[in-house]
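Changelog-linked ticket: 1,6-di-O-phosphono-beta-D-fructofuranose example.
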Amino acid sequence: MFQKKHLTMGEFIIANQNSFKYTSGELSRLLNGIRLAAKVVNHEVNKAGLVDITGAAGETNIQGEDQQKLDVLANEKFIQTLKNREIVCGIASEEEDDFITINSFDENHQNKYVVLIDPLDGSSNIDVNVSVGTIFSIYRRVTPVGTPVTMEDFLQPGNKQIAAGYIIYGTSTMYVYTTGHGVNGFTLNPALGTFYLSHPNMQFPEDGTIYSVNEGNYVHFPQGVKDYIKYCQKEEGDRPYTSRYIGSLVSDFHRNMIKGGIYMYPQTSKAKNGKLRLLYECNPMAFLAEQANGKASDGTQRIMDIEPTELHQRVPFFCGSKNMVDKVEEFLRP
Ligand SMILES: O=P(O)(O)OC[C@H]1O[C@](O)(COP(=O)(O)O)[C@@H](O)[C@@H]1O
Ligand SMILES: [Mg+2]
Ligand SMILES: [Mg+2]
């Protein structure tokens, strides 16, 4: 993998597209399409508060959540940009009840890729100027080219992903992705509008000292999670660990990947599958975690081996430094 620092993202994609099994330039164009939409959304996010793009949009999505104006705007920008790139045959989004079929310009369903997207992650942080993100997951279709895309193309296990990544709109804007050859991070130079390779070959430290969980739900957690949190807080060895929870999955994951830590969104007595969505939150973050020497599980099994059954299904999520995820699985074992 060619990872010379300060390469532009465009140069990096071209330099490395031969490491990709189906090299035809289509995946490169798809990754570049996401980069374009990310810049448009970044521009909007940066002026949140100045112009009327904060607050609720007045609609609820299929999850029963109030859609924020930026959820809707980001959803539109990514869908429009991907539609125009003549590569995608279908898109599924957190903000769309059902998947969207995208036909090729020649009307013969020639496109090969499906994209699953969380257009704006960390919606509860939009209005309070805390970092948010976008998460994406890419698969090759399983139904034959020349036919319309079907649900089967979206309900693939995470271990079939060909690429995944996120954009973080934070103190700087970064694009972090994998195509199954490690994880690389690119930082946007806002003056030039160009992403540069700033974080080559990102790796989770095997051990960490940060745990990220919404402790406000503590009383509703399974006993094993409660015991693990107590373990993190115990004065012993390199503990107590530090509690850090931003409330944006992308941002908590990003920090933990750099510093070493674990992010948890467990099941609760109120939500037996937790909150996070398997297809466009947990699978892409799990692919990145594993490619960065980390680990992701639902407490008992590998996230990427879960056979999906629904577009918006939720799963408990434990993700981060390998030894920390092993430890919480130990506490969760009956
Ligand atoms: O407020 P809670 O219940 O702790 O949930 C926070 C979690 O929910 C999310 O906001 C869910 O994602 P969306 O904002 O895309 O719906 C995660 O980013 C975050 O980690
Ligand atoms: Mg999300
Ligand atoms: Mg979202």
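Closing comment: Example verified and attached. The mean pLDDT is 93. The two ends are 42 Å apart (CA to CA).
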